[in-house]
Design brief:
Radius of gyration: 18 Å
Largest sheet: 6 strands, mixed, barrel
Helix content: 10-25%
Strand content: 35-45%
Strand order of the largest sheet: 4-5-10-6-9-8
Number of helices: 6
Distance between the termini: 9 Å
Number of strands: 25
Structural class: mainly beta
Length: about 325
Amino acid sequence: MRRLPLLLALLAPLLHAQERYFTPAVADPAAPNRVALDVRPGNGLQVVQAELNGKPCRLLFDTGASHTTFDRAFLQREFPELPLQPIALGGVTNVTSAPAAFPVKSLKLGQADLRDFIGMALPLGHLSGSVGDRVDGILGMNAMAYAPFLLSVGDGEVLWNPPAERLEGFRALPLHDDPGDNSLSLVARHAPDGKPFPMLVDSGSSLTFAESAFWPAQGETFDFAASSVNAASAASVQRGEPGELRFGDLALKASPLLDHPCGATLGADILRILDLYFDARRPARAILGRQRPNKAGVDAVAPEAGHDHQRQDKNTEE
């Protein structure tokens, strides 16, 4: 979902100045917490069960989203009295519907109760079709990063404050410069001697993308179907040559698509074979990673041209 920095690229002045209002209060942020991931077949996107202000909801787990956003229709159906405060956008944006803000009294994730912060509302009904199941909103980094967490798409779970033994074999991965928001990007390379480039860690994108300035292309440009934060969209991309995607001394085989308008993103195709531990707290910010055993012997690769490419990056964002 690159990168519901929708609320960053788009709402940067507001969010920068008032980020504390988007940060939830948690009674015991150091307590262990586990939430199961519903990993969708085919695209690898992850959905979690949560509870918003006492109502159950299903949220796309999206590390590429800076802020948590709910479908406007879901909010109007479940909370008809809920005040939605429109927010005016300035500058160039692909968001055709102005987002609104509303008070989140409680967002329950497993054993954690995230309280008293601002949520965002947008028309997100089309995302259910993209994900392949009902989705009521997007869980962004402002909420999920209330404490350090281990994302294991392969095991179908998220663990906040995981035990030390679960991090055995993990290594520190190089972080790109702090963008000042909630997102985390790695320093990536194509092969050991490749030029470094930032790659957003984006579990809300089904596929991994790079840029042709840093990754060699293979074949012709083709049209690629995507879902944006507002609706379906299209882009022209190229297939990257099969190669080595490196984060420091961690090397993965990959065949990313190239030159998507969203830029370079590490998507769910590679996250299936890579467990990541996130700590977004400043100044500690860090990502640790460990490649999973590839029992099937299948590397992360791009889909065939002409198929449903499933760039479920709900936000072509932003």
